[in-house]
Amino acid sequence: MAKRVMIKNPSYPALRRAHEIINTQWGSVLESQGILDKKVNWKRMLALIPNEKTRTYLSEVWDKEGDLTHSSTERWNELQAQLIENYKNVSYKNAEQVLMEIQ
After folding, report:
1. Residue 20 has what pLDDT?
2. 93 contacts 59 by C-beta, under 8 angstroms
3. Residue 43 pLDDT grade (very low, low, confident, very high; cuts 50, 70, 90)
């Protein structure tokens, strides 16, 4: 099982730069490797999210829809939207940090 790495906010400058580089390639990596295409893969990704409400909601929605309904990019966008929604009362930085940790 994957292990979530805790990143302090603000993160080290080198870590921020690395994340910026990853972000430029992330969309093509999602699609070419099908990271979130199969249930076994998206279950691993959801396990890294600390917010149980987000994990449960996405797991139920994606389970119901099946593997062929959404692309990895669509699932990633849903995941981002859910994290931002669930963390908006706390702070956007928290949602951004969680995304950085699982990416």
Report:
1. 84
2. no
3. very high
Pure H helices in 1-103 = 13-33, 39-47, 52-65, 72-87, 92-102
Question: Helix, strand, or coil here: 10?
Answer: coil
Instruction: Calculate ∠ Cα 40-18-76, nearest 5°.
Output: 30
- CA–CA dist 43, 27 (Å, integer): 19
- At which residue do the structure tokens 């400058």 appear? 13
Q: How far is residue 48's CA from residue 103's CA, in Å, rounded to a whole number?
A: 10
Look at residues 30, 11, 24, 28 and name the one whose alpha carbon lies nearest to residue 78.
30
Angle, CA of 37, 92 and 9, to the nearest 5°: 95
Q: pTM here? A: 0.70
In percent, the amount of the chain with pLDDT more than 70 equals 71
